[in-house]
Amino acid sequence: MSDLSYMRNIGISAHIDSGKTTLTERILYYCNKIHAIHEVHGKDGVGATMDSMELEKERGITIASAATNVTWKNKEINIIDTPGHVDFTIEVERALRVLDGAILVLDSVSGVQSQSITVDRQMKRYNVPRIAFINKCDRAGANPYKVTNQLITKLALNAVLMQIPIGLEDKIEGVVDLIEMKAIYFDAGEDLIQQRFAEIPEELKEEAAAKREVLLDVVSLVDDNLMEAMLEETVTNELLIAAIRKATIALKLCPVFMGSAYKNKGVPPLLDAVSAYLPCPTDVENTALDLDDNEKVIVLPSDNDLPPVVLGFKLEDGQYGQLTYVRVYQGLIKKGDELYNTRSRKKFKIGRLIKMHANEMEDLVEASCGEIAALFGVECASGDTFCDPKLNYSMSSMFVPNPVISLSIEAVDKKASGNMAKALNRFTKEDPTFRTYVDPESNQTIIQGMGELHLEVYVERMKREYKAEVIVGKPEVAYREALTQKAEFNYTHKKQTGGSGQFARVAGYIEPIIHDDNEDSPKDYEFVDNIKGGSIPTEYITSCDKGFRLAMQKGTQIGFPVVNVRAVINDGAWHPVDSSDMAFQTASLNAFRDAYDRAKPAILEPIMKVEVTCPTEFQGNVFGSINQRRGIIVSSQEEGVTTTVEADVPLSEMFGYSTVLRSLSQGKAEFTMELSKYGKVPQSVSIELKEKYQKERAEANKK
Amino acid sequence: MEIQELIKSSPLRVFEESIGGGLGRGNLGVLVSRHGVGKTACLVHLATDKLFRGEQVIHVSFSGNVEHVINWYKEVFNEISEIKGIDDASKIYNDILANRVVMNFSQETVSIDKVLSSLETLVKHGSFKADTILFDGYKLTSANLGDVRKIKAFAQKLNVEVWFSVSPVRKDVVYNEFGIPDTMGPYIDIVDLLIGLRMDEKENKVDMTLVKEHKNKMIKELSVSLDPKTMLISK
Question: Does domain B3-204+221-234 have CATH number 3.30.300.130?
Answer without folding.
Answer: no
